[in-house]
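Researcher: Let's try something more involved. This one mixes different molecule types, so please make sure each is placed in the same coordinate frame as the others.
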Amino acid sequence: MPTPGSLAATVCALVLAPLLLGIVNRTKSFVAGRRGPPVLQLYWDLAKYLRRGAVYGDTTSWLFRLGPVIGLAAAAAALLVTPFGGIAAPVPFTGDLIVLAGLLALGRFATVLAALDTGSSFEGMGASREMHFAALAEPALLLALATLAHATDCLSLTAIYRAIDAAAWIGALPTFALTAMTLVVLMLVENTRIPVDDPTTHLELTMIHEVMVLDHSGPDLGYIHYAAALKFWIVGSLLVGLVVPVRSGDFWLDLTAMLAGMAGLAVAVGIIESAMARYRLVHVPQFIVGAATLSAVAFIIRLV
Amino acid sequence: MLEFFIAILLLFLGGLVAACSSRSDIGHRAGQIGAIVGSVFGLVAAVRVLIGGEPEGALGVWHMPGGTLHFEIDAVAAFFLLPVFGLSIVTAFYGRTYLSTGDGERDSAASWFHLNLLTASMALVIAARDGLLFLLAWEIMALSPFFLVIFDDRKEAARHAAWTYLAATHLGTAFLLVMFVVLGGLAGTSDFDAYGAVLRGHSTLSSAIFVLALIGFGAKAGIVPAHVWLPEAHPAAPSHASALMSGSMIKVGIYGIVRILMMLGTPEPWWGWALIAIGATSGVLGVLFALAQHDLKRLLAYHSVENIGIILLGIGVGVLGLATGLLPLAVIGFAAGLLHVVNHCIFKGLLFLGAGAVQHAAHTLDLEELGGLLKRMKWTGTAFLIGSAAIVGLPPLNGFVSEFLLFTSGFVAVAHPLASIATAGLIVIVVMGLISGLAAACFAKAFGIVFLGSPRSPEAAEAHEAARPMTAAMAFLAALCVIIGLAAPVVVAASAGVVAAATGIAVGTVGDQLTIVTGALTGTVIVFAILIVVGALAWGLRARRLAGAAVPRRPVWGCGYLFPSSRMQYTASSFAQPLVTQFHLFIRNREALVPPKGYFPAASSYSSDSGDPFLRLLFAPTFRWFDRMATRLNVIQHGHIHVYVLYVAATLIALLIWESF
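Model: All components are placed in one shared frame. Result:
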């Protein structure tokens, strides 16, 4: 049975995930010298989407309607295996990291098929790019997790992250540091942030994720945005759980440290987005493969 | 064992009646009944051994020098008989409707003979316990698909494919022949039971046998570079025959490797490494080649190469575990490989049957001519979607379960302190990650371009749903994909007996080791259950929200352009282009581009050829060289009988002289 602490952390994720994107946007506005939208803007947006009707493209089938639902369900199910720092995941088991990768892939597959269902070449373009980068990001994520598994000698995410405390960091500094860098890149790739994708661009031709969801509206679009926020939280907590090795054993202290870390991550993403330009699409694969190589180096360092 | 022989007899009789009957409707019915009833008998025999755990055997008198008529069904054989007989029932059910509603005006009833002979010979290969008997059954199994591939012999492509298949399969058989001759020579008998004893302690000899088996059986299974016959043969054969060939026949190659490993006893570590290397190469190259294909069945054929790679990766990890004495690796690795045999049989069978339905409906398998079929073919489309998600390894379907086992074996290896084991684990994890990522891209393309969007040709726009027996066969296989996914802990726990037989580890120990993964799979099932519940709730909420609201249909967003046509859609080539370009080093796609020039461009064109680089760059030059060499021998070939008689006499005299010295 899941502990009350892990359930509390999951509720935190479900409630606070949209807030992170608000913080990212506020940070970007602050750096750009604007006031920017309210931090809670995404909550208002989600409430509005759920109240609205929907418009469907005339080529679409039932799969187009099912896509966002599967995307949301996959993200929610992925939360069940994601530990929040030292706080256990609700359903931890050996090999749960494989389920995490599988659920992320399921959500992506559903989104991509829904995009192809429109028959629009814009959405086809986005779908093609998404699958291209995901095909490289998936081994990179597994490589990073395998390196952590090797360093901590554990086979479930909860056990791995429980073992990453300050002492472990001192013992495996280069390995953890390099893996953290891989996770930073994956954070940006999986959540389609700058420099991989620009979520606020206005030109369809240059988009990846946003162009795939152009034709969704109403509750469907709400699901997509909420699922994206959850995914940001999930991949983010993999990174923050590694970088913030507070494992005091005291639930409230651990939770506070992690929440502060998540807020810090959102600010960091905002600053990265403000400071960098989007890469040309042909350079994104190099970016991902480079990140994977860092993890491979981390593994080899640990090995010798 | 009796049921097994009844099964063989019924399959043969059904095929014989089909081949000889003058009326095609009787022929079709006889072939189908023979296949279904025979396979049911075969399944009974296999399932009884699997449940009871006791091997069943039969020894007959055979008036053939050197061989014994020795059959035995042990747990491993029974396990491999499941896909053979099981898929045979489904394809026979589908096949009669498929053949009789096809476009061909030719009488197709005779094809049942070869189809049933294929099933029967696969079963005989698996049950044979004698080298000579094995080779005989193997040869029937190698020849009968030839007639299925050349089914549509008016087509140049089919004749070429059949020829390629014949050459490839016999190259493989050549290695097996050498292997059995060596084994038989050492043991003094061709009985399998005698082979194991002569090999004990001979590590060089064992390694040589392993290499011969890996090449010989690997060619049948379709490992790179011996895979070249798959993308030629599968598209040419009728779809239900392709399903049987890809779902069952190539698995007999895997069976051969497993059987030889069982005979060889404790393996050497490098065998595991070799299997992992071959598995990784076949897996990655298979899926990369698949990405570049425009023909649905060619694409599926390359995915068979990929999945054989995945199976070999699992067996490789298992062999590495056996060689180094790491029980968890041995057990989970073999369990992953063996379970993927059954899983691949289910979803690949389903996908080939789906391709057949598409071909019937739209009269083409060219991806660029299809589109929007999901709306016109609800059942076929949904079943194909489930098959696609399963082969990609997405939760909560059966493909995920075997890939989960393989990943788990990788992670178990990674956590091991020994550097070589940890590295092997890392290789498996990264390769599997890459394979599943690329496979997801490939099936997003295959399903998305064929079934989604709008039709790209008038034929696709006029497509109709397949007949009821065909959709029922596909629905059955799709249901199996879901059931195995959701009943994963039970299925894996039930495989303990088979894994024990394949690895030589005691059943109790195997069961203990498997609890690592069955416990984990219980966790996955809980997650899947919540996934389904959340999905249902989200769907329900969405439906309630939209119930009262206006839900109009409008043209899709085209930057304000309101008249999109199906020609503006992304195509299969354009979808795969970024990946194909990135991996050009391996895929070697040939492209010809005439770009539009000037302000008023006249003609411009683009074409790409996704022919197999191994066929083009390795096999074709080799065979041309042999052809040239053989042509040189023409000087001694005149076509005059008396010259040939002279050759015979001269040879005899030369031999007599040689003998007298």
